[in-house]
Design brief:
Layout lengths: L1 E3 L2 E3 L2 H16 L3 H13 L5 H13 L3 H14 L4 H14 L3 H14 L4 H38 L3 H11 L8 H9 L5 H13 L6 E5 L2 E5 L11 H9 L1 H6 L1 H18 L9 H15 L11 H20 L5
Antiparallel strand pairs: 1-2, 3-4
Helix pairs in contact: 1-2, 1-3, 2-3, 3-4, 3-5, 4-5, 5-7, 6-7, 7-8, 8-10, 9-10, 11-14, 13-14, 13-15, 14-15
Amino acid sequence: MEKNDGNIVMFPKWKSRLESAGLQALKEKRYEEALEALQPLLDYGVASNDVVTGILMSWIELGNFDEAEELCQKQMKENMDQYYHYLHIYITILFQSNRYQDIVDLLDEVFEEEEIPHQTRTQLWQMYEVSRKLLEDYHKEKGKELHSDFLEALEKDDVRKQWVLLEQLKKQRAQSYIDTFTAVLQNKTTHPIIKTAIIEWFRDSRVDQSLSIQKFGQQMEVNPLDLNPLQSDYILKQIQMRLSGIEQSNPTMYDMLNKFLSHYCYVRYPIYPDEQEVPAIVEALKQLGHEYLQLPYHSDEENEQVQTYKEEIELCEQHYLLIVGESS
């Protein structure tokens, strides 16, 4: 080594010796020795593309995917002349890690945004097709497993596990499971929150058919494709608007009431309150907010309907927190 303006610089002969030894070790599949020789070249900023590639290949072979991914991403940003070379290696890292979804998402973006040389595009397309097929196979097998586990949890009346499994099943296309889950929606003993999760899944999967749903003693026919997401519903927004004064005077109470309202409507979904119910629900929420925060509150609406909504909102909140959890 020699010093140059205060910076430590590697002697050319040492650089050449390390590069030669490292690449020879790589050729002979002695990956740890290859890294020992090549890593200093990277550390001193004198690594050629062959050296960087050698380091990446060694890390991949040794299963050090995190280090390989970080270096590869850095090279893709900083070494644009070799972008597609490092893109191939990056895809190899993702492939070795079974991250097929990441490959598909990445290549979707690459195909859409970049001018790609014909030969490179052909190679990337082949990688894309293989990854997409493996991803489909993985989802199919994973879906079968989740479906079986859900039915077992249903039989054991393990509502929390049903919820967890449904959250994973939402990554699948609901169309493959319509028959099973339509029966669940009609079952009077299925928890309302589980029915909500199923309806959301069907809606987000764009299931376009009339479904029969039994919920809170009501029998209804619903096409999931016609349903709005919960937070965009007109009645929900109307109630929030009537609570907006509290948002200004007591933001803590408003946040709490907004959670109560959201959770209450989630449990009921797709049954929304009608406009006639809105004043009583607003009053019930206000009373609950003041009671929970132990603040004085005078109300002229101490009627049975308001009390009923208070009890319903509290019950829905308890069930929501037990099944879905605090952070959702």
